[in-house]
Amino acid sequence: MGKTLFEKIWDKHVVKTIEGGPSVLYIDRHFIHEVTSPQAFKGLEQRGLTVLRPDHVVATADHNVPTINQHLPIKEELSRVQVQTLKENCEKFGIELYGLGHPYQGIVHVIGPELGITQPGMTIVCGDSHTSTHGAFGTIAFGIGTSEVEMCLAAQCLMQTKPRLMRINIEGELNKGVVSKDIILYIISLISASGATGYAVEYAGSAVRKLSMEARMTICNMSIEMGARCGIIAPDEVSFNYLKGREFAPATGKEWEEALAYWKTLYSDEDSVFDKEIHINASGIEPMITYGTNPGMGIGVTGHVPALSEIEEKEKPSFEKSLKYMGLEPGSKMKGRKVDYVFIGSCTNSRIEDLRMVASFVKGKQKAGDVEVWIVPGSKQVEKQAKEEGIDKIFEAAGFTLRQPGCSACLGMNEDKIPAGKYCISTSNRNFEGRQGPNSRTFLASPLTAAAAAITGEICDVRNLI
Predict the structure, then answer these.
(1) If we measure between CA atoms, which residue out of 349, 394, 365 comes closest to residue 457?
(2) Within this chain, do residues 196 and 262 fall inside the same structural domain, yes or no?
(3) What pLDDT is stored for residue 390 in this prediction?
(4) Is 172 among the domain residues?
(5) What SS3 state is found at 338?
(6) Is residue 294 domain-resident?
(7) For residue 195, what is the domain's CATH number?
(8) How many domains does the structure of the chain reveal?
(9) Residue 27 lies in domain
(10) DSSP state of 351
(11) Residue 386's pLDDT band (cuts 50, 70, 90)
(12) What is the maximum span of the chain, computed from C-alpha positions, in angstroms?
């Protein structure tokens, strides 16, 4: 029997399997940031341990950093302390830090791929749930807790239980105005926010193969939002072309050819077996929008919030609680609903392709007067490229604000918070209660749908504006 892509990578990295228990898994790359690393480093010091392979650890500051005036001291005390502590720990343990002011600084799941650090066949971890992003390159990539961050720093290995395997096949052509964010929001709405719990999910099919690398990263990024341990896509010519020539990718010549030969073996064999398979027709997906307080509460933009009669009895209390928080009524339409803020950024949608997509749509248009729009690039390199391409000027003319790199309004952990009671249409990955700030209300959508809301001031069908 053949092997799945996941099994090929997993088996290659198993150091030891404990009978009836987990496996000791070797980790190729460990990304760290300022939020989940301080306690881990403190644990190492208390136990008199060092970092085993500092050259396999990549550090950056992203969650707590401000996205304006990054040259000034950070105002929020907790944020300032965490960023400073990361700097001190990296100096102490010999880890390279891409901190504020460094040309490689940015969101951890943006800089790994764009620098060529993320490569097919790797195992990758970070103390951040959206580490699944890197699976777009054909890697096993997953988030870990602080105690596991400490373990990986000390041993470059982790104890892991092999997950079950799911494949989601997306075939056919996407309609105009429908992009990768809509694909993953559709999948989560279909199987629920817990529908992939305990699984590693491989995305396959003709619609996936036609996507760019940045679009594939968006899909893998949100695998965790349906409970999956990780998401993964088989590498192909799109992946190889993306990586070639990047800073830390294998050098052209013999090193590149050897890496390429291995990468081309990374696919699920025809006779490999999955525990579960799902088939989706891409032409049935429309621009998506969430209405509730988890990413599974999503509908097509022309649809309506479910009526109470459409909800299972046991789900009704949480459904009603969610709608009360969001200020919505069962059975109501989402189209035409007013928004106050538009946030385009996060590790889901802050890459140069996302910014180009938005700039192309808004060129020559003006934002609605009562909407505040934040565009936050995922890295210094994305910011630099946007300025070189004149994208910043397009945004400025439209009344948008291009800020500096960071996680920003994805989560209420820095200065970029949505005020209480206000509605934000966001390209980020989570719409939990208070996620973007205490009592803020979040609608998740694609960059195109968010851009359309910025122009019209309300949730609308971007297909009518293209």
Answers:
(1) 365
(2) yes
(3) 98
(4) yes
(5) strand
(6) no
(7) 3.40.1060.10
(8) 3
(9) 5-160
(10) S
(11) very high
(12) 64
> Which residues does residue 443 pair with via DSSP β-bridges, in sequence order?
425
Residues 135 and 14 in one domain: yes
pLDDT at 1: 85
pLDDT(92) > 90: yes
Do 452 and 312 belong together in one domain? Answer: yes
**Do residue 51 and residue 175 come from a single domain?**
no
Query: What span, in angstroms and rounded, lies between the C-alpha atoms of 229 and 235?
Result: 19
pLDDT digits (tens, 9 = 90+) for 120-134: 999 999 999 999 999
Average of pLDDT values for 443-466?
97
With residues binned 3-state (H G I as helix, E B as strand, rest as coil), the percentages for the chain, rounded to 5, are 40, 20, 45
Q: Determine the 3-state secondary structure of 21 from DSSP.
A: coil
Amino acid at 166: M
* E strands in 218-357: 230-232, 276-281, 288-290, 298-300, 341-344
Q: Which residue in this structure is represented by tokens 């946007």?
A: 386
CA distance 341 to 61: 25
What is the separation, in whole angstroms, between the first and last Cα of the chain?
Answer: 48
- Report CA-CA distances (Å) from 420 to 64, 254, 406, 413, 458: 20, 57, 22, 15, 18
Give the tens place of pLDDT for each residue, 175-221. 999 999 999 999 999 999 999 999 999 999 999 999 999 999 999 99
Which amino acid makes up residue 20?
A: G
Mean pLDDT in residue range 308-325: 96
Q: For the domain that residue 88 is a member of, what is the CATH number?
A: 3.30.499.10
CA distance 32 to 302: 40
C-alpha dihedral (392, 395, 401, 402), degrees to nearest 10:
-30
Share of residues in the chain with pLDDT > 90 (%):
98
pLDDT for the residue numbered 418? 98
Residue 299 lies in a domain: no
244 pLDDT tier (thresholds 50, 70, 90)? very high
How far is the C-alpha of 103 from the C-alpha of 335, rounded, in Å? 41
Write down the pTM of the prediction. Answer: 0.97
Q: β-pairing, 140-143 with 164-171?
A: unpaired
